[in-house]
User: Which sequence fits this backbone?
């Protein structure tokens, strides 16, 4: 039996509508904003500054694909992006945060396209030398000797303090104690560390390392050593 032209068109249209997948070829759009959080390391307070992400690459994934990115576009001077000509369905939009090491991490938002214009939740990406890092703080107190006689005590100003990865012999940073007896190591990645300074024998002048262990678990935090270093030094 031969189908009437109208019935054939109706069946064909139904077939196409049932097999339309997410992607280009529709009349819908989605848009949103990307903001950049800059993490500075010019002080000890983890100061941040949030600004529109200008000319930042934003990627879109059609359906349930992985984060390979089916298409991308750049934000404008206000951090705004817009993807046009989309079919109805589920999408993922993402941009990249970047660590000081150069490693990137995708910050993603999922959105269902169901109308002509669809809004995406704001994406906040992170960057800066202090992003993804922590601080380790401690203090050094000195007992000052003249020969075998202790003559004074107080903050070990200008004493050297070292840090190395636990299990390694070589230190990767060295700082000096401040005028209040405190020190801070900055831009420390999560991991286990050995912090140490030296104590000098008043009689033999032999230097002995004095060490503490600490584990940095979470970025954006200041970790304080559990004990104050107490060392001997020449007056």
Assistant:
């Amino acid at each position: 039996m031969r189908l009437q032209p109208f019935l054939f068109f109706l069946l064909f249209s139904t077939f196409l509508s049932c097999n339309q997948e997410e992607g280009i070829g529709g009349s819908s759009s989605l848009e949103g904003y990307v903001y950049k959080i800059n993490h500075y390391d010019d002080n000890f307070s983890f100061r941040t500054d949030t600004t529109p992400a200008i000319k930042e690459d934003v990627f879109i994934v059609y359906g349930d694909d992985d984060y390979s990115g089916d298409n991308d576009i750049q934000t404008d001077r206000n951090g705004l992006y817009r993807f046009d000509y989309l079919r109805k369905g589920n999408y993922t939009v993402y941009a990249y945060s970047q660590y000081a090491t150069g490693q990137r991490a995708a910050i993603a938002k999922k959105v269902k396209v169901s109308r002509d214009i669809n809004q995406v939740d704001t994406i906040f990406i992170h960057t800066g030398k202090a992003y993804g890092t922590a601080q380790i703080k401690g203090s050094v107190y000195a007992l000052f000797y003249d020969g075998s006689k202790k003559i004074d005590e107080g903050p070990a100003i200008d004493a050297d303090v070292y840090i190395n990865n636990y299990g390694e012999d070589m230190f990767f940073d060295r700082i000096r104690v401040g005028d209040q007896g405190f020190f801070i190591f900055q831009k420390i990645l999560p991991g286990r560390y050995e912090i140490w300074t030296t104590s000098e024998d008043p009689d033999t002048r032999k230097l002995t390392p004095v060490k503490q262990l600490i584990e940095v678990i979470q970025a954006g935090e200041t970790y304080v050593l559990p004990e104050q270093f107490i060392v001997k030094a020449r007056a």
Observations:
- Confidence is low (pLDDT under 50) at residues 1-19.
- The first strand starts at residue 24 and ends at 39.
